[in-house]
Design a protein that fits this description.
Blueprint lengths: L3 E4 L5 H12 L3 E6 L8 E5 L5 H15 L2 E6 L14 H29 L2 E6 L3 H4 L5 H21 L4 E8 L12 H10 L8 H11 L11 E4 L8
Parallel strand pairs: 1-2, 1-4, 2-3, 4-5, 5-6, 6-7
Family: Belongs to the short-chain dehydrogenases/reductases (SDR) family.
InterPro entries: KR_dom (IPR057326), NAD(P)-bd_dom_sf (IPR036291), SDR_fam (IPR002347)
GO molecular function, one term: oxidoreductase activity, acting on the CH-OH group of donors, NAD or NADP as acceptor
Length: about 230
């Protein structure tokens, strides 16, 4: 039986690579996304994950087509960087509402399906920044750090039902966003990474496919770094 894998935010960047990797794995892949072109073989429902009713309706639509979700990769996220003393309440709240509460909305709905199947794989896409911190990203780091507590609480609640919940913590990954960084900044960052390079989105996707597999059935509540060694010890 092919599995229904739902990857949020699969139109670009890391989410796109994750969706493509599950398609290549032979899974049926869908996404909840805000717009844009989707990878070949990925079916989508446009919805805002800050809206509970929209999230539930998107799940209903996609499950009607492909069956209950068996693997959820919660990837969708935003940044609104700024130094602490200048960060507005709105910029803090918006990032938390998408990255943390939006993830919660998706996980809550997915677990409803997974409990009935007594099977599920939940993969939350965090960040090395959530473990190490980063200047100008108090909002983003807070939202990503909280995903660790979320995964571990989910594991304790529903682990006996064949459901796992884990976090991937990517480091600096080559995407359209990082491609806009000045060359000097890239070199500075690379100097702090033991691997001395940025990662590829495919390397994050490989971790997601593993954590979403039957082979990872005894891995839960874990944080898997994909960061070239940047976050060691955190």
């Amino acid at each position: 039986m092919t599995r229904h894998v739902l990857v949020t935010g699969a139109a670009r960047g890391i989410g796109r690579s994750i969706a493509e990797a599950f398609v290549a794995n032979g899974d049926t892949v869908s996404t909840i996304y805000r717009g844009g072109d989707l990878p070949e073989g990925v079916n989508g429902a446009i919805a805002d994950i800050t809206d509970t009713d929209a999230v539930n309706a998107a799940f209903d639509e996609l499950e009607a087509q492909h069956g209950r979700v068996r693997v959820l990769v919660a990837n969708a996220g935003i940044t609104k960087d700024g130094l602490l003393m200048r960060m507005s309440d709105e910029d803090f709240a918006n990032v938390v509402d998408v990255n943390l509460t939006g993830t919660f909305r998706c996980v809550r709905r997915a677990v409803n399906s997974m409990m009935r199947q007594k099977y599920g794989r939940i993969v939350l896409v965090g960040s090395v920044v959530g473990l190490m911190g980063n200047p100008g990203q108090v909002n983003y780091a807070s939202s990503k750090a909280a995903l660790v507590g979320m995964a571990r609480s989910i594991t304790r609640e529903v682990g006996a039902r064949g459901i796992t919940a884990n976090v991937i913590a990517p480091g600096f990954i080559t995407t359209d966003m990082t491609a806009q960084l000045p060359e000097d900044t890239v070199k500075q960052y690379e100097g702090t990474i033991p691997a001395k390079r940025f990662g590829a989105t495919a390397e994050v996707a490989a971790a997601a496919v593993y954590l979403g597999s039957d082979a990872a059935g005894y891995v839960s509540g874990a944080v898997l770094p994909v960061d070239g060694g940047l976050g060691m010890g955190h």
